[in-house]
Please model this.
Amino acid sequence: MVLSLVISFILTLIIELSISFLVGIRTKKDIIVVICANICTNLVVVYLSNIVQMFNNWDLYIIILLILEVLVVFIEYIIYKKYLDYNIVSKFIISLLCNSVSFGIGLIISYIL
Model:
């Protein structure tokens, strides 16, 4: 489970920092905000989803995972709204885009493995 947390966090950070950079987030402070937002959300979601996965109930796992992902989008949006100085693209769009792409890539990686 620890390996899953570490790998997921590193991949998510790479993906979300890349997307953040592509939309124009460049300052050291804003990059730190993106990293901190992911520390607050990713580790919790991966940990909880790993626990739910142990129940071997695919329907429950999908429902919980989708709820957690929606919560992450809103939590990161709130963090970005409060602490991100960047103002070119909507902070909600940044959160939604970053999390949609990282979730999608995570699904693809899970399918391949």
User: Anything to note?
Assistant: Residues 28-53 form the longest helix (26 residues). The helical segments are 2-22, 28-53, 58-83, 91-112. The two ends are 16 Å apart (CA to CA). The chain has a mean pLDDT of 95.
